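User: Teach me something about this protein's shape.
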Amino acid sequence: MLPRFGSPGAGPGHRLDGTSAAWRGAARVHHVGRGGCRYRLYQRWLRPTRTSREGDRSRVFRCSLGPIQARRGGMRLSPRPLRIAHVGPVATSIPPPKSGSVETMTSLLTEGLVASGHDVTLFATADSITDAKLHATYSQGYWHDEKMWPWELYEMLNLSAAVERARDFDVIHYEAPYYPMAMAFARLSPTPIVQTLHHAPTPEEIGLWSRYPEAPFVAISQEQARLLGGVSVVGVVLHGIDTEVFTFRADPDDYVLFLGRFTEGKGVLQAIEVAKRTGMRLIIAAGEDAYYHEHVARHVDGERVVYFGEADHAAKVELCGGARALLYPIQEPEPFGLVLIEAMACGTPVAALDKGAVREVVDDGVTGIVFNDLEQMIAELGSVIRLDRSAVRARAGTRFGVQRMVDEYVDVYRGIVDLERGLP
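Assistant: First, the predicted structure itself:
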C-alpha cells in the first residue's frame, strides 16, 4: 500500500489520498535519466557555462553559482516575508521524541522562521508539532513502522511532495540530502532548492554532488565546507539552539557525561577509559543497540560507569546540567557536534579531542578544552572541570542562539531568491 500525502496547510492527522501525485513526483526523476527533461536542466538563477548539443543527452550540465555570504549587508536582500518549504527527514516526528539531531535542528529552524514572520510549510510526519503549516506526508516515521521499507523511498516521496508544490514557495530547503535521487529534483523544480548537509561527506558523495551545481548546499561548519571542495556551497551557518530551555547549574553533581550514539567514531570506549583512569563517575546516555551489548555493556557496573539509556529532551537537560564535564573523545571527524553546545548551554564545560569542527564550536579555555590526544585529556581533565560555568553558559548564548541561526539562513534564502529574480 502506498503512503498517503497530507493536505497542504493542514494540521496533524488531516490527510488526503495523494498516492498518484506522489508517484508522479518520483517518476519525474526517472524521466531525467532517460533524457525526458533534456534542456531545462538548470534554474534561471544559475549561469550556464556549458550547454548540450541537440541529441547529446549524456552530457553533464556545468553551471556556476558564486558563494552567497551568510551575513547581513553583503548583498541586496528582498524585504518581504519569504514563502519557505522546509523539508525534514521522515524517520520520526519533528521535533523527535528523543534523540535525532537533524530532526531537532529542523524543528528549531522551522519555529524560528515562523516567529520571524515567514510563511513556512513543514513537510514531515503527521505526528510532528509545529507552528508552521504542516504538510503531513505520512502518519508516522519509518523508525516506528517496519512496513515502511525501503526507507529511502519515503524520504524521496516527501521531497517529491514539496517539489510538486514548488510554485507555492520562494525557496525549498531540504534537510536530508543523503540520497543520490535528491540531486535530480533541483533540475525539475521551478523553485530553487538549497540543502543543509548534516554529516561528513564521503569522496563518493562529493564526486556525485559536484556534478549538480544547481543543487547548492549550506555547510554547518567551515570544516565541512572545506571537505566539500568542488561542491556548490552557498553559505556556512553554525547550528543554534534555544539556550533558554537548558537549565544552568552552578553546582553540578559528581559525574562526567557521555551523550551521543554508540559507534566507534563517537568514542564511548575512550570516554570509559578517561573516567576509569581519572576516578570520575561516568554516566552514559545513548540508545541501546548491538554496539552497546557487544562493546559497552561489559564496562557498566552501575556505580562508576552507569548506563542511563536514551535521553529525551528533559532528561538531556538534567544530565547535562548535573555533569561536571561532557566528554567528547571523538575518533572520527564530525562536521559540528550538537551535544557540545547543548552541554555548554547548561554551563557544563566540554573535554574534546581536536578532530573535525571541534575548534569552531569550543572556545578553547573558555567553554572547554580541546586536547591533542586521549592521554592529554586524562592528565588535564581537572582543568576542564575548573572552568567558570557562568562564562560557559554566557558564551554559548552569545554564539549559538537560535535567532542568529535563523537570521543567517534567511540571508542565504534571500540571496538565492534575489539571484533567481536577477537582482544585483
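Now, about its shape. Confidence is low (pLDDT under 50) at residues 1-77. Residues 244-400 form a domain with the Rossmann fold fold (CATH 3.40.50.2000). If you'd like, I can walk through any region in more detail.
User: That's plenty for now, thanks!
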